[in-house]
Amino acid sequence: MNQLAHKPPEQALNAAAGEVIVLPPVTVRRRKPQWRTFCLNLFQRLIPATLGMGLLVVAWQIAAINSKGFPTPLSTLESAITLFSDPFYNAGPNDQGIGWNILASLQRVAIGFGLAAIVGIPAGFLIGRFTFLARMFNPIIALLRPVSPLAWLPIGLLLFQKAEPASSWTIFICSIWPMVINTAEGVKRIPEDYLNVARVLKLSEWTVMRRILFPAVLPAVLTGVRLSIGIAWLVIVAAEMLTGGLGIGFWIWNEWNNLNVENILIAIVIIGVVGLLLEQGLMLLARRFSWEK
């Protein structure tokens, strides 16, 4: 009786002895070489950009053929080669190379933008930190922020009685607002838990500002700085057209008076390239300090 009770069923013995489980073939995924991935990404970015530039050149050529006095891409390229063959010549105060004009404009932007950063970022911290200050200054910011740069230039000329500080003043007052607003918004969005920990530890306001607020709000500050540098570079061209002297804006106006449209188009390209480089540099800096991946 005991042997019959422990005897395994006949079907189980047949299945264990005769069934063979066939596993599907395993496909081993090979990683693409790094150089191949890099080349593929490069081509995916390069080809659309090249097609876009080609489309722009074709549209430019059509516009030149169908208008009187508008230069062709080829004649503009020849003028650019002549212009950049000696970008730093100096033939007097009113006749200097394009390199000196670009450097003069960058110097004005650096002064106006630097002053805006020195004033705007701390002001944004205070406005974001203290509700009383926010209620005091937000109406002023909302009132002054949409004012055109050209409206600020006469005020600068009246205040400083000179063209050079008036240009820097115009850049300062136009580029300060994005830094103030972005910094204040960044401070407001800091999690309340961070500030509660600071209260429990009885940290001083300076320590809270230095150890908690500044590291947490740094990406928002850099976003404001990036927006401000674009505005500063836009404003300088208009300001220099009106104030004169050395600079890319006045150089465009001077070339227009000489009816040299090729050089105006070259200046437009230069302004775009310099603005792009400034913005990309600040975007790179912002990504470096951003925790949002």
Structure notes:
This protein is mainly alpha-helical. The protein has twelve helices and no strands. Helix 7 packs across helix 8. The chain is flat and about 80 Å long. It holds the Pfam family BPD_transp_1. It is found in: Cell inner membrane; Cell membrane.
Keywords:
293 residues; mainly alpha; flat; disordered N terminus; MetI-like; ion transport; membrane; transmembrane helix; Nitrate ABC transporter permease
* Main sheet overview: none
Number of helices: 12
- The 3D shape can be described as flat
Number of strands: 0
Which segments are poorly predicted (pLDDT under 50) over 5 or more consecutive residues? 1-5
Family: Belongs to the binding-protein-dependent transport system permease family.
Transmembrane segments: 38-63, 109-128, 231-252, 264-286
Keywords: Cell inner membrane, Cell membrane, Ion transport, Membrane, Transmembrane, Transmembrane helix, Transport
InterPro entries: MetI-like, MetI-like_sf, NtrB
Task: Describe the secondary-structure layout.
Layout: H1 2-6, H2 10-18, H3 34-65, H4 73-85, H5 98-129, H6 131-144, H7 149-160, H8 163-188, H9 192-200, H10 205-243, H11 248-257, H12 261-289
